[in-house]
Amino acid sequence: MNPSLNSDACYWPQGTVYGALLNFQQEWNLRASQMPEAPYKGEPKAPVLFIKTANTFTASGASIAIPSAVADVDIGANLAWVFGADAKPVACVLVNDVSIPHESYYRPPVKFKCVDGFLGVGSKALGIAQVKSDAVVLTVKVNGKEVQRVNYADTVRKSQTLLADIAEFMTFQEGDVLLLGSDCLPDGKRPRAKVGDVVEISANGFDTLVNTFVGGAA
Description:
Fumarylacetoacetate hydrolase, domain 2, 3 helices, globular
């Protein structure tokens, strides 16, 4: 049975996890002036994707270690789609795309995105029919204080358009996951977490995704 649809089991990714960058209008607008610069010399024509590797997966309720050389990390609250055998989304889950802060969102280095434990994974997935993806609003809290709301009505590519544009060059396999994007704050940065912080990501109908950040190895 696909665990994403089993209401009695915690969800866990079973395939490749892809993420979409620059998919919120606020961040797009803030970076528009940089897009004509080298090396790309123009705005992206297709979705900008990255991968979260299996070593990054961390269950809700578990701790995420921040490397000792890093002061804090970016919080990337995302709604994610889980794919079935027909390359169509069958479920939704909340995730936290944790990253070491970095300047380039066009070609994010693996060493900043794929650190051990750097993807918080919601405990339960909801069937795709239960969720109006383009109307979901995520609430992000750090130590109980709200620091951000992520509204999927504000995306550059709505969910079905994003899927159609990606399908032009790749096919999703059963169990694959697509993060629909995380928004930035008005200053272009993302909310930050440091050692000792508790981060909660919630949305109507979903179990809250909770992770505590702890100190890690050098």
